[in-house]
Design goal:
This protein is mainly alpha-helical and 135 residues long. 54% of the residues lie in helices and 10% in strands.
Length: 135
């Protein structure tokens, strides 16, 4: 799962994560955290095997996800960790979580859009009826 070159250093990977983090919109007040020992992994990849205490959590009560969505994300994160091997990169895990958040956001927009359309259709139907009634 790790597609990084074996010569990639921890600094390179951290810089890569810093570059993608602005594009990864974990803007639901969700944080993914972990610890690593820079002395031990100076010339190793940032993988599951080289980090400790990998967690996902809400950083505040302002999280825009409802309880079901948050539970879904948390379970998905746990599944990713369980299915990962030693070479799974942190960047890959972050990308999977971002994809799931995007999927949730798109599902919510579709649902809200359908709800709005229904209200507009009802409103239009009512207006047509009133217009016909006036004639």
């Amino acid at each position: 799962m790790n597609e990084n070159d074996s010569t990639t250093t921890i600094t390179d990977e951290l810089n890569s994560l810093r570059l993608i983090l602005p594009r990864i919109k974990l803007d639901h007040d969700i944080q993914i955290s972990f610890f690593f020992n820079t002395l031990n992994i100076l010339h190793k990849s940032l993988t599951i095997n080289n980090i400790h205490d990998l967690r996902i959590h809400k950083s505040s009560n302002k999280c825009s996800l409802n309880n079901d969505q948050w539970t879904n994300i948390h379970k998905y994160f746990d599944e990713i960790i369980q299915q990962s091997n030693e070479q799974t990169s942190v960047q890959y895990i972050i990308q999977l979580i971002q994809d799931r958040l995007l999927q949730i956001a798109l599902t919510n927009k579709k649902f809200k859009h359908k709800t709005r359309k229904s209200a507009e259709t009802i409103s239009t139907t009512t207006n047509k009826f009133h217009g016909a009634d006036l004639i």
